[in-house]
Amino acid sequence: MASSPIHALKVLEQSSVSPPNSSVPETSIPLSFCDLMWLNLNHVERIFFYSIPTISTSHFIKHLLPPLKTSLSLTLQHFFPLAGHVIFSPDSDSKFHYHYNDGDSISFTVAESDRDFTHLAGDDARSVIELESLVPALAAVSADATPLMAVLVTVFPSQGVCLGLTINHGACDGSSAANFLKSWAATCKSGAASAVLSTTPLFDRSLFVYPKELHAPSLEFAMKSRELHSVTPSIHTTDHDLAKTDMVIASFWLTRDQIEKLKRWISEEKKVGVHCSTFVVACAYVWTCQVRARGSPTNQVAWLGFPVNARGRLRPPVPEGYFGNCLGVCLSNVEVGELVKEDGLRVAAEVLGREVDGLGDGVLGDVDAWVEMGKVFKDERPLSVSGSPGFRVYDSDFGWGRPVKVEVVSLRNTTGAMSISEGKDGGGIGIGLAAPKMEMERFSFEFAQGLDQLLHSC
To answer: Over the stretch 394-414, which tens digit does the pLDDT of each residue have?
Structure first.
């Protein structure tokens, strides 16, 4: 047994998992403009905590690990790009493509930890350094071959199991990743001899119809991003490492009843002329709390950005099973002074609601504007949103029961980022937030106090 000195994590097994032999032919798939836009940005890192008080490491390895690996192999037969690579071919016109060879695999690590499972899976602020050891690394095969997925399973004897996934955002968006995860979990739980697919994944890039003029600027963006990462990889910079020691992730919850009361308060006397969805209300509330916690000057501009699933918004619509990135990006802004005043929540909800209502069929917008958005994300510390309640991450039952906590650890890469999911019981909203320690303390106070004041006024 090899041991890791980091956070008492003991590596028990390092292996790989492939689709069944000869089940997938050698395949190359071009990248859409949307894949290129996300290719060299941060990976998506998500961890799932399962409470199993009777679990022992030997029991897990003997009884739970084999079906977990077998079901992953069966599922990867249908989601094979995740086992392949993004290949950079500088002499080709396209520069990048997905490539799968028979036998390609994903890294699969099994580890053991003696740390406090309840603390790690809790809601209170936890250091990103504590959580990131539960996230698998994506190790490049070469400078021109980038892997797309890795798995790390950590056993906490007599406590539970943590399943950690890292997925290269260039491979797919949240909708596609959720489809893969649902299929893997269902296959594992059923013990079936073939994959139990949530939705059949589709890889035909002609299904995603978009203006061809979007491709050139997105390719240029991908090339520049690749060059920047190869020169100064952000995950290894000293400044980033110092910032991590002060960065924490915490969880917050809004029940169905609280959301409905917030909607009524926002819509009181029809002062807000847009549709207040649950997503809009939750993001608007977090945004106002964050702005207050930061204490920014009232004449400063506050920003919020979020991705939008474009599949059903395009003409022709893209099938639900389309595997890849099919996203629009929305970026809203308003002066801080508008958000911190008494009816700041209404202002935030109207700004966000207007942005959502105005998407229509133009969800892809102008890719040149996306590059400008990237500058805003770098310089203005916007509240950036990842995830969706529609992904139903708490339904991920591999036969061990529903997860007691799901955390998006990649929030650590963006100061002020939030994740959004359904509540643990399937209702309400779960919110994950990453922020420096002092800012998180102020945010927690604003979140609790704001709910108390707003809900008592309903």
So the answer is: 999 999 999 999 999 999 887
